[in-house]
Amino acid sequence: MPDEPSTRPDAQWGHSGPEPTIHLPIPLTPLVGREQEVQTICTLLRRPELHLLTLSGTGGIGKTRLSIQVALALAQDFPDGTYFVSLASANDSELVLLTLAQTLGMGVAGDRPLFERLKEFLHDKFLLLLLANTAKMHYFLTAHP
Description:
The protein has helices spanning 9-13, 35-45, 63-74, 93-103, 114-123, 137-143; strands spanning 22-23, 82-86, 128-132. The protein is mainly alpha-helical. The protein has one domain (9-143). A three-stranded parallel β-sheet has the order 1-2-3, sandwiched between helices. The model is unreliable at 1-14 (pLDDT under 50).
């Protein structure tokens, strides 16, 4: 695993809170031959100015498996947790929101729109959010530009 020091704020100032939540699927097999990609992605995600990283490629080449390995390697760098969200069954913007909220442990009922509550919930969080099957994100982006 990458042993390069993190440049994230919690690492710089000494994270001393409770152990971060890790909400990831457990890989059933080892990741073989992708050490360089894991190292490169970890280095990128440790850059404080980086807020979004997209892995793209043909279906079935291992993007999700690679992402899970990276998330496992970096889990301690994100004090508010590391979360895997599969959007495979999210066919509209409300399902994307519900899936995100449920994975993050938010209540879905409330008097304000879920999108607004989700933004508020995430506002001061320092977490790693791994979104898989994002081909359906256009539903969300169209409804919430």
